[in-house]
């Protein structure tokens, strides 16, 4: 079975702080993709990153960085020097190769205070 | 870039009526379409997966006779909520892709309110 766990329901930080959002996944598939999406209050999903199971290289994109570790089945997301505009719900998601289903975690609500 | 157009963005209907939500891929052929439902402050729950020309595969607990999914072409999939009730009020989002390795593209969602 596939499962994505985001243990942090809500996180509140002050602007310019760094924050890490945790994501732990479970799958029996050997080939799979992991994603992070941002959902602002308006509701649309904003794609942030896709990582396939064979690529464990960490990635940095501006203030965003991702740490993928297959040994711990984790795909954590760090925002450096957070800004108020980063306030949103962030979802981690898993697309299994065999199951062909995109499953979302429960999301983490990030509130960045000015 | 690729865009998925979901329409309507919001709809209010009376209990007992049916509502159709459209999801169009504007510049790519959507082989697979996913339909999700999201209650306030909750995650996106997968309702069904459809492949063009085939019947949709519904997740456990989702009534296929209530949530009719049609994926008759490579650019259009529809979700019809039949005989809607207030408990069907939710945010519905579609997602589509070409091949398995293709990026997933999401519509902007439809907020359904049943009175």
Summed up:
Chain A is mainly β and 114 residues long. Chain A contains no helices and 12 strands. Chain B is built from no helices and 11 strands.
Question: What level of helicity do the residues of chain B show?
Answer: under 10%
SSE order of chain A? EEEEEEEEEEEE
Using DSSP, what is the number of strands of chain B?
11
Number of helical stretches of at least 4 residues of chain A: 0
Beta-strand portion of chain B reads: over 45%
Low-confidence stretches of chain A: none
Q: State the shape of chain A.
A: globular
Number of helical stretches of at least 4 residues of chain B = 0
User: What is the strand content of chain A?
Assistant: over 45%
> What is the β-strand count of chain A?
12
Global structural class of chain B: mainly beta
Assembly type: heterodimer
Radius of gyration of chain A: 14 Å
Structural class of chain A: mainly beta
Query: What's the mean pLDDT score of chain B?
Result: 91
Give a quick account of the main beta sheet of chain B: strands, pairing sense, barrel closure: 7 strands, mixed
Ranges of chain B where pLDDT stays below 50 over 5 or more residues in a row are none
Tell me the Rg of chain B in angstroms: 13 Å
Report the end-to-end length of chain A measured between terminal Cα atoms.
41 Å
């Amino acid at each position: 079975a596939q499962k994505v766990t985001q243990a942090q329901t809500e996180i509140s930080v002050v602007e310019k702080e760094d924050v890490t959002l945790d994501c732990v996944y479970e799958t029996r598939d050997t080939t799979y993709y992991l994603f992070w999406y941002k959902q602002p209050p308006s509701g649309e999903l904003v794609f942030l990153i896709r990582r396939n199971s064979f690529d464990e290289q960490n990635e940095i994109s501006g203030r965003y960085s991702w740490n993928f570790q297959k040994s711990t089945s984790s795909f954590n997301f760090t925002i450096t020097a957070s800004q108020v505009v980063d306030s949103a719900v962030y979802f981690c998601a898993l697309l299994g190769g065999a199951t062909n289903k995109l499953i979302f975690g429960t999301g983490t609500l990030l509130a960045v205070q000015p | 870039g690729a865009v998925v157009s979901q329409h309507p963005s919001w709809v209010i209907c009376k209990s007992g009526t049916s509502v159709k939500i459209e999801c169009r891929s504007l510049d790519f052929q959507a082989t697979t379409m996913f339909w999700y439902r999201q209650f306030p402050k909750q995650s996106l729950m997968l309702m069904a997966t459809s492949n063009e020309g085939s019947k949709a595969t519904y997740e456990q607990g989702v009534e296929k006779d209530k949530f009719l999914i049609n994926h008759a072409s490579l650019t259009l999939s529809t979700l019809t909520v039949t005989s809607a009730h207030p408990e069907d009020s939710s945010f519905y989002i579609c997602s589509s892709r070409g091949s398995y390795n293709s990026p997933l593209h999401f519509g902007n969602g439809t907020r359904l309110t049943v009175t």
